[in-house]
């Protein structure tokens, strides 16, 4: 159900006003959301449409490495893969961006210069978000100064769940300011938000606070990007666009490992938000192992034989 | 509505009249088994939803079996690949225990398999009994080989230099097996057991005309501590499934025993991804009696092994 336009009228930002707005949003029909997502995931996408979907999905991948064991070498290898996902086939599009920790931004920027692949950095005490505000802002500024074009911030789920919406709102606006020209993706960590109602509220809160993207998860918490959650977030950006004309992107991340999962997400985007969102500017998929599966399916379509993971890089 | 009620009442009346106190007891509804695939340790229907009728030697309908599709074959290879890491790193001794357990469970269900062989292949009771005994013994045979094959095929190599040099056989990976067409139990056991004994995992296309014994055997495998995915059984047509398995890059070796006239074509497809191939041997196209040799040796194990050789300097 579209959110009434009046809900977006500018007003003094107080916790009371935010609360009134967020709790005034229509509730999510959980059974309905699940059924709709399930229904859309049975669409059959084959042959030429599948080939197109695979290439689109590749161009939307935020190739991610967020491990404690990341090294500059691993980041460089990942960047090489991002620019040329399949070195034996130059018709494969490059991915949307590479997503790394903030201390690896300089390495990634260096490796990706001239390739057209963006560099995204997680910031603000990823993945827990438990750090003083100054530290979060310093983290963000450093990543932007090192050349990150996109910042993936995490919201303070503790504050959100305890009803302190103003704190979450102000953090997002402050980080957005620290970003300057860099795009801001707001990670809601939906696995910790418990209900779909909360996902809808957090999405609207993040959008209202100036986020350019809403992102489902850090990938460190399970469940991560489930289809119904992505559906609720796509509805939020659709409603915001209907009310204000501003486009906000969506990025599901975590748990999307197969081509089938990716194509289901694309179907969801097309049916819920609309074809406007079928671009890497407004839809990204945060993943690491997904890219290999997309490449393997691409090979399968073009050669007719099933490929082996042995022929693709490990990361 | 009234009419229907009347009819029902009338029907009941007839039944009561027919089933008097000294009449035959009302017969039980038959509980028929749905024969499905064995894939990743589970028994799913074919992804395609297809099935085909299976008849006995004399043309009598026995059951419907799932008709596996290209995608079932793909899923089976994925399941086998997933199971390979765990199965190949088990100790050889443990694999032997599990294969012996298969023999134990099969022995406990020998009546079922004997009856199956009589009905499906038209064997006499005595012949069927011999075949089932041989199948049980075949599992014991390869259970014994699991922790001995390394000594027979590997060992220390004499080299001219200050090095220890050792060779050891290792499993090659996922093996696609086209099982014998006319030997659905003993033939199947004889080709599958040597593949998994050494630590490989198997995707098996069973006999097309007599697939029921294979799915009954799957029930034995599923209850013998054999991890899911180590053996995957597809009932279906070799001409449909074979080309995809042969060309599949994630299949490391191919046993062409049941390939019939397509063997050469499959071998050619397998060559594009350097898949190891075992050609159909002489006599393997025959019935169960062709597989009765109690000592088949290592011939069916060695084609699916890689030799790893390690050089190690002396004194360090």
Automatic annotation (TrEMBL), chain A:
Example of a GO cellular component annotation carried by this entry: cytoplasm
Name of this chain's protein: Deoxyribose-phosphate aldolase
EC number: 4.1.2.4
Pfam families the UniProt entry points to: DeoC
Reaction equations catalysed: 2-deoxy-D-ribose 5-phosphate = D-glyceraldehyde 3-phosphate + acetaldehyde
Family: Belongs to the DeoC/FbaB aldolase family. DeoC type 2 subfamily.
Domain of life: Bacteria
Species, as recorded: Nocardiopsis sinuspersici
Keywords assigned: Lyase, Schiff base
Broad enzyme group: lyase
Record pathway: Carbohydrate degradation; 2-deoxy-D-ribose 1-phosphate degradation; D-glyceraldehyde 3-phosphate and acetaldehyde from 2-deoxy-alpha-D-ribose 1-phosphate: step 2/2
GO biological process, one term: deoxyribonucleotide catabolic process
One Gene Ontology molecular-function label: deoxyribose-phosphate aldolase activity
TrEMBL record, chain B:
SUPFAM superfamilies: ALDH-like
GO terms assigned for molecular function: oxidoreductase activity
Matches recorded under Pfam families: Aldedh (PF00171)
Basic residues: bias regions: 1-11
Coiled-coil intervals: none
Domain Aldehyde dehydrogenase, chain residue ranges per copy: 52-278
UniProt cross-references to Gene3D superfamilies, sorted A to Z: Aldehyde Dehydrogenase, Chain A, domain 1
Keyword Oxidoreductase: yes
Leader sequence segment: none
InterPro entries on file: Ald_DH/histidinol_DH, Ald_DH_N, Aldehyde_DH_dom
Region (Disordered): 1-28
Annotated keywords: Oxidoreductase
Protein name (Swiss-Prot/TrEMBL): Aldehyde dehydrogenase
